[in-house]
Amino acid sequence: MKKNQRMRNWMILVGMALLALGVLSGCGGDAENQPEGSTQTPANTSESASFRTLDEIKESGKVVIGVFSDKAPFGYVDENGEYQGYDIYFAERIAQDLGVEVEYVSTDPASRVEYVATGKVDIILANFTVTPERAEQVDFALPYMKVSLGVVSPDDNVITNVEELNGKTLIVAKGTTAETYFERNYPEVTLQKYDQYADAYNALIDGRGDAFSTDNTEVLAWALSNPGFTVGIDTLGDVDTIAPAVQKGNETLLNWLNEEIRLLGEENFFHANYEATLAPVYGEAADPESLVVEGGVVE
Fold first, then answer.
1. What is the pLDDT confidence band of residue 82, given thresholds at 50, 70 and 90?
2. Residue 88 is part of a domain; what is its CATH number?
3. How far is residue 175's CA from residue 213's CA, in Å, rounded to a whole number?
4. For residue 203, is it within any domain?
5. pTM, whole model, 2 decimals?
6. In whole angstroms, what is the distance from residue 201 CA to residue 235 CA?
7. What's the CA gap between 161 and 149, in Å, rounded?
């Protein structure tokens, strides 16, 4: 064999060896980036977390529930750093009947769907109004409260009719039914949006907007505790319901919640909840029958 032929053959062999080493190195890199025991490549990894079934929650000894921390009297943190309110009262009973401890996760209005849809919480109890759009992303249990929208404004310029908001600035919280309602029905109203309820109320107090709209139950409670403001519109839009929500497809937890709500209705649990958490705030300004839903049955 001629010398130049031998040289060409040697170069071909070296090239093939280098190519094989490159392929092996690439495969080794993928394996290093995978979790131990995983058969799924990083490219196929989903950002969505799988839900915990009812049995898994019980076995863990803990249920994780998303609630508000700044929306008194429904979900808030008191001066001692403890969660309190109508939703908390219900959450504590859920944990008791599950036989587990409860871990609260504070959420804001716009994060409620995401928190339950990605498994950050097992249940959302953050004054969550049932809507068709949300029902496409989460599974709602039976309702435990009725609600519609309300509008609160300063005493020196009370808004008593929605048309009075034309050309004015209305404060809303992001991800709420108030935001959706006004965007769809009153596009001429300028919306000033905030992530947190506390920031929205501070904006109203500071005069950065002419009025604030959210659930009528909430604005009524706030106005009673904040002299100088009046709920001029106490019912706006449809009467909706508030219900717990779980991740899509979590049938074991959903079925348990539905049965729990039905059983609690037999003991008038939610009326007792109202008396303990809402009556001290509302007094005679609200009728519990217009708010409370027992056994998941809306009357």
1. very high
2. 3.40.190.10
3. 13
4. yes
5. 0.76
6. 19
7. 13
